[in-house]
Design a protein that fits this description.
Structural class: mainly beta
Radius of gyration: 21 Å
Low-confidence stretches: 1-18, 99-103
Number of strands: 20
Largest sheet: 9 strands, antiparallel
Strand content: 35-45%
Strand order of the largest sheet: 1-8-9-10-11-6-5-4-3
Distance between the termini: 40 Å
Amino acid sequence: MRAIYVLAFLLVVYANCFGQMNVKGLTPGKSSKADVDRVLGQPVGKVSETLVEYRPLELTGKIFVQYRGEAGVVERLEILCRLPNSTCNDFAKKWGLEPLFATDPEAVKSGESKLIFYYKQPHYVVTTAEEESASVFRMAFYSRELYAVTVTKALQENGVAGVDVNDPSYEEVTGVVKLRAADGSLKPVAGAGVSFCWAPDFRVCYSSGRTNGQGMFSNSVLRGTYVVVVSGPGLKWNYKQGVQIPSASALEFVAEPGDGAIPTSRDLENAVRKN
């Protein structure tokens, strides 16, 4: 398990103590590409189909914006904010952003002597700093949805609870996985894996762990619409689209006998796009 660090007074910035952070009025999860182009100008490069680079502004280095597929909604706005002649604090002051001390960040050690700090709701901010000095050099502003599925997973992998059970955005989800036998009967499956994958990016999923001896599973999941994947020993992996959370009742998944293969994100994406 990677070492966990907590820094009580890391200086981060936000625009509203009681709301989601934004930059120059650009709010991930709400603002459109047209909004970004109006504030940051035309893109200067295209990293991928959904990740676009914009020209630096005063006191910033490169700026990257990740979009939500064809919808053109901002998912993440990432800024390199430490330059030879300025710091991220200078950037914050110049852009009219206030220091944030209201919430201690959760931090995990990354490679190359870096620390990554996660600020949960209502902030949805991730900062990257040098391990020795804790000097921030990169800030990323997330949509609520993208933060939940990516950062929760990262925190859990590092032994930190990423889901706030008191956050009303999350719902407790329960369900059962059954195997269809040769005679057509349905039997509960123990040890099956259940993942709630976010359709805009099939690489990020909530895992519900393994089903128990009665084939049951449970997990806290952000409200939204998911593709749910079921796999496990002796099963043919399968998925169900358009699963709404919260659900009016417990979820039920029926699997067919198979080789127990676990699908990759590309396998899932290809299967969904064919339908």
